[in-house]
Amino acid sequence: MQHLDLQVIRQALQWSSTGQAVWLCTVLATYGSAPRAPGSLLAVNDQGQWLGSLSGGCVEDDFLERVALGEFVQPAAIVRYGDGSDPRSRVSLPCGGVLDVLVESLPSSCQVQDHLRQLESALLGQRRVLRQVKVPSGIQGLADAAGQGPRVHRDGDYVHLRVGAAQRLLLAGYSSVAQYCAEFAKAMGFEVVLCEPREEVLDGVQIDGIEIRRELPSEFIFNGGCHADTAVVALTHDPKIDDLAMLEAVRTAAFYIGVMGSRATSDKRRERLQRIGGLNADALDRIHAPIGLNLGSKTPAEIALAVLADVLRVRNGLDRAAL
């Protein structure tokens, strides 16, 4: 499946390459109820064509009207929608939310097109970058981004935007917990891939909107199935699936690697992975086992909630002590 942000950047690049001016809009912050998360993109060309989303309709209509009237000519501006405090917007969101949006006016130039190509590369998972935009000059910069953290950070006149591939959840094997993890993660905007080689286990399984691959998770990971924005979780209690997935996952840049099991089971698994798999202490430390936050979870849905909560904690750069 193709990440919407990737489609937006590719379309902006195509428009720019044919000599059209492009306005690139990025959601910076949301307050109250808002349908799109910080970092979400919208691109508009000088013909009024657009792709992407900021709010689900009302903000887009107002923005397109104002672009047609010749507004937003400065290289970069931050516009607030929703509370009436910004004279450049006259939209009150029906859900009562407020959006801060970065609006960049991008001329058709080789420099802009090179910048967009680098963003395309990041969104394909080839690298993760930290994009810097100065307001109102529109001066742009790109640097390699290490670790996890919020997608958007503002520092004075500068906006810092973390750009990477669509967040992916790789489920190593199917179980009732994996079913709930898939459904929860899909609702949160993750790409979800389930690798399950056991045909009898998949019999009758239906999860809309996820990719099911009938192969060992370790094979999928070995063949490039993980990037730096991938979380790998093993939830089967089958060592042939779970252990092999862990052995391959620690060799990737996956930001979260976890496997289900009690403390005693987890200790035995670490011993096996060290003795048979040859993993050193640093590699073993990357594995979250027991997986998830300690929420006192008992049912499959509760365990899945604890797993996804821990994935989000790591994705957002939070230490357990900060919770």
UniProtKB/TrEMBL annotation:
Coiled-coil blocks: none
Gene3D superfamilies associated with the record: NAD(P)-binding Rossmann-like Domain
Domain of life: Bacteria
Residue span(s) of domain XdhC Rossmann: 169-311
InterPro entries per record: MoCofactor_Util/Proc, XdhC_CoxI, XdhC_Rossmann_dom
All copies of domain XdhC- CoxI, residue ranges: 15-67
A Pfam cross-reference name: XdhC_C
Protein name: XshC-Cox1 family protein
